[in-house]
Write a structure and sequence with these properties.
By secondary structure, the chain is of the alpha/beta class. The chain contains five helices and eleven strands, in the order βαβαβββββαβββαβα. Helices cover 21% and strands 21% of the residues.
């Protein structure tokens, strides 16, 4: 996790890189082992564009051979174009992985707005990926800046470091961000993979039910698929 901090994987990914469908590109919120591990580094196609933070792009290019890694600063955008003319515009959004001085220890993180458009330019879907962020004032700015999205994908887990410092959203925080961003639908992920994840999915489920948001939330099982 950086600076000598470690975490043990409890569950394996639902599929290997070889089992993924053909990829047009990769959106990477930050360089942490639970998002970009040794298997990904070895197995993914190094010719693919990787849209990520400036810090991560420098490491991916100079040390790992991903020459098309592109770093976006907050509010910057990059568009991926398919041969049929369909596009995906990725906009980097504010994220804060840790409170206070600890931000100097953990890598910079970004949220992302994914805007899918048809070959004719029609906007089909707008999806917010939170990345590993905590609730902070930047989340409010996201809602003000991008407006309503079709779906928010929320990284939860309540990752807790020694001393009780939480660096990813727990169930209450996830519900706070859900209320702030106010998407049409939401899906929680990043909940039970590592031993430092201390907030179970049930904590988020209870919060959204208590606050009246349960009908807007869809859950996806490990290895399962939901339609956007």
């Amino acid at each position: 996790m950086g600076k000598g901090l470690t975490s043990k994987r409890l569950t394996e990914p639902a599929c290997t890189p070889a089992e993924l469908p053909a990829l047009d590109g990769i959106v990477l919120s930050h360089l942490h082992g639970d998002h970009w591990d040794r298997v990904a580094r070895r197995s993914l196609d190094r010719s693919l564009p990787v849209v990520t933070t400036p810090a991560a792009s420098r490491t991916l290019q100079s040390r790992q051979g991903f020459r098309r890694a592109l770093g976006l600063r907050t509010w910057e955008s990059h568009t991926l174009v398919r041969p049929d003319g369909a596009t995906l515009e990725v906009t980097a959004l504010p994220g804060q992985h840790a409170p206070g001085p600890l931000r100097r220890v953990l890598p910079p993180v970004m949220g992302s707005l994914l805007e899918f458009r048809s070959p004719a330019g029609e906007t089909l879907r707008r999806v917010y990926l939170s990345g590993d962020t905590l609730p902070f004032d930047g989340i409010r700015r996201i809602r003000e800046h991008i407006g309503e999205v079709d779906r928010a994908v929320l990284h939860l887990g309540g990752t807790t470091l020694p001393g009780g410092i939480v660096v990813t959203m727990d169930g209450r925080m996830g519900a706070d961000v859900l209320e702030t961003v106010a998407p049409r639908r939401a899906t929680p992920i990043h909940v039970d993979d590592y031993d430092r994840f201390r907030s179970p999915l049930s904590a988020f489920t209870a919060e959204v039910e208590r606050r009246g948001w349960a009908e807007r939330v869809d859950y996806v099982e490990r290895g399962g698929t939901i339609s956007l």
